[in-house]
């Protein structure tokens, strides 16, 4: 029980960006595993550890753990949640910019989720597929996956992933010069984004909203969203000063933002 408690707490610390505490708990877990090697093949424990390393940004380590879990699942015929393992593999590959591997992992995740009639897991996998396809500039396929995932997220009142699909759709629409569609997605995204915490892949929404308002000549709103984008960037990389430039009433306003760590 102590081992699982430490693992869960380490993941929680990692998700809260308290990396020092997360690593401290992780070291305790590793020491216990060294003393009890049988735990090194415990799928549930490894899944928690893989998640913790992922949230710490240790994507290579997370990938190694997920690959070990996948091998154990097939060797032990423990395939009940193999879709989730493939999904976590996809996340690790994506963050390592191994997009072909990410696509294959997300595809497997979606297939297994659909086999066991788990539409929400299938939607998350489809969202991963779409994000990967976007980076590969396969926009038509990405859009199809997003619409399918968006429908399921909406049916189950899953606000955060629903918002994320809107953001990707807005990006794709803009990249393919479908500006009315991009505007539609951005307006809807703005309405539901106020109380939603966006991770590093989706803070681009703030920049897209700033750009939208600049194009509409609404410079106060543009400044608000550009400032929010810069602050979000600084939370990810607090030591990096960000210069943001926004046209404001026919003048160029430059603001350098720095948040002390």
Describe this structure in words.
The chain has 261 residues and is mainly alpha-helical. The protein contains twelve helices and two strands, in the order H-H-H-H-H-H-H-H-H-H-H-H-E-E. The chain has helices at 2-15, 19-35, 43-55, 59-75, 82-95, 99-115, 119-135, 139-155, 159-175, 179-192, 204-215, 219-236; strands at residues 242-248, 251-257. The protein has a two-stranded antiparallel sheet with strand order 1-2. Strand 1 (242-248) and strand 2 form a beta hairpin. Helix 7 packs parallel to helix 9 (159-175). The longest helix is centred in the C-terminal third of the chain and has 18 residues, at 219-236. The chain is globular, with a radius of gyration of 21 Å. The model is unreliable at 239-261 (pLDDT under 50).
Q: How is this fold's topology laid out?
A:
Layout: H1 2-15, H2 19-35, H3 43-55, H4 59-75, H5 82-95, H6 99-115, H7 119-135, H8 139-155, H9 159-175, H10 179-192, H11 204-215, H12 219-236, E1 242-248, E2 251-257
Helix pairs in contact: 1-2, 1-3, 3-4, 4-5, 5-6, 5-7, 6-7, 7-8, 7-9, 8-9, 9-10, 10-11, 11-12
Features:
single chain, disordered C terminus, 261 residues, two-stranded antiparallel ribbon, mainly alpha
Short précis:
The chain has about 260 residues and is mostly helical.
């Amino acid at each position: 029980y102590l081992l699982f408690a430490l693992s869960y707490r380490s993941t929680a610390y990692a998700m809260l960006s308290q990396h020092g505490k997360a690593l401290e708990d992780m070291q305790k877990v590793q020491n216990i595993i060294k003393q009890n090697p049988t735990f090194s093949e415990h799928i549930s424990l490894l899944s928690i550890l893989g998640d913790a390393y992922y949230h710490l940004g240790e994507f290579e380590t997370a990938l190694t753990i997920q690959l070990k879990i996948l091998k154990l699942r097939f060797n032990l015929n423990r395939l009940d949640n193999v879709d989730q393992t493939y999904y976590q593999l996809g996340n690790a590959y994506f963050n390592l910019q191994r997009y072909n591997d990410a696509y294959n992992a997300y595809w497997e995740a979606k297939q297994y989720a659909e086999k066991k009639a788990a539409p929400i897991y299938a939607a998350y996998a489809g969202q991963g597929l779409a994000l990967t396809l976007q980076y590969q500039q396969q926009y038509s396929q990405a859009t199809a996956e997003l619409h399918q995932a968006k429908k399921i997220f909406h049916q189950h009142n899953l606000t955060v992933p629903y918002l994320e699909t809107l953001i990707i759709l807005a990006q794709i629409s803009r990249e393919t010069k479908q500006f009315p569609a991009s505007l539609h997605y951005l307006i809807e995204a703005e309405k539901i984004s106020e109380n939603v915490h966006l991770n590093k892949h989706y803070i681009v929404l703030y920049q897209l909203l700033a750009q939208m308002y600049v194009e509409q000549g609404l410079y106060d709103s543009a400044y608000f969203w550009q400032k929010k984008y810069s602050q979000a960037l600084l939370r990810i990389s607090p030591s990096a000063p960000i210069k943001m430039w926004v046209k404001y009433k026919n003048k160029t306003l430059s603001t350098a933002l720095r948040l002390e760590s």
